[in-house]
């Protein structure tokens, strides 16, 4: 009787743990709605949606990385570099000194070039990690400084402002990514598209199964024929592309690009991912969970700002949220292992 009661209690706790992010989100919405009357206004919700889109896109790339057992600390710097690349191409074009000409690209071409740059940085991260056996934390930490340094060098630390382009140069329309369509931010629409594609890849394709297999047991995955190094490189490449897209959206929203954009956003991405149920140990994670985690981070950030909480306290709270999420994740894993052991004992 006691064993049955204990089993039921464990099942209830497990259900609550699995839905913890939604529960936390609901509590936060209620709290900030009471704490500040402006929280549920249209303008505030639009602002939150814009920020959630940025954290969500970064988080999706981070989800793939963390599922494989890695980490990517360079995404915030890639956001800044991506914005500077796009902003520089709009305002200054590309000067070909050997031909004495300056080439200006259309906005779609600028977007593609920026995404390629993000992909190349991600590939470089993957190569350093897989070919030289450098720990992901160290490799991406170094790349964070490299990307941030190049962002600063692009304009000697200055801002590219008024990124509207010129009709005569054929490079207008960049501000589209910062606009709303039917009251919905374009960034949120892009997030939805990327989320659907990423979710399908993760759950319905062999590539997704390989990502999960590597995180679950890398040696077993390698023995079963999974090309571990190739998958890891592709995962970091995808993370770099997501970061570059966020750089484009951020610069478009501001109609300006600053090399310090995206500073410390890697922590927002990690927090959203872990809060969404992706295990830091690898092998477990969902895109839907990460999106909910991004909502939690967005609500916390904007809610605290509306309440007039200091930026320094915001950093403290965000750090505590990450630690709390990891502790809860570990507790859930231990409880799952305990329930599985009890089930085997009962069956035997």
UniProtKB/TrEMBL annotation:
Keywords annotated in UniProt: Cell inner membrane, Cell membrane, Membrane, Transmembrane, Transmembrane helix, Transport
Pfam family for this entry, one: BPD_transp_2
Cellular localisation: Cell membrane
Transmembrane segments: 21-40, 52-82, 103-128, 134-153, 181-202, 233-257, 269-300, 312-331
Stated name of the protein: Monosaccharide ABC transporter membrane protein (CUT2 family)
Topology of the protein relative to the lipid bilayer: Multi-pass membrane protein
Alphabetical list of InterPro entries matching this protein: ABC_transp_permease (IPR001851)
Phylogenetic classification of the source organism: Bacteria, Bacillati, Bacillota, Clostridia, Lachnospirales
Main localization, broad class: membrane
UniProt entry tagged with the keyword Nucleotide-binding: no
Any one GO molecular-function label of the UniProt entry: transmembrane transporter activity
CDD domains per the UniProt record, alphabetical: TM_PBP1_transp_AraH_like
Key word Transferase present: no
Protein origin, superkingdom: Bacteria
One Gene Ontology CC term in the entry: plasma membrane
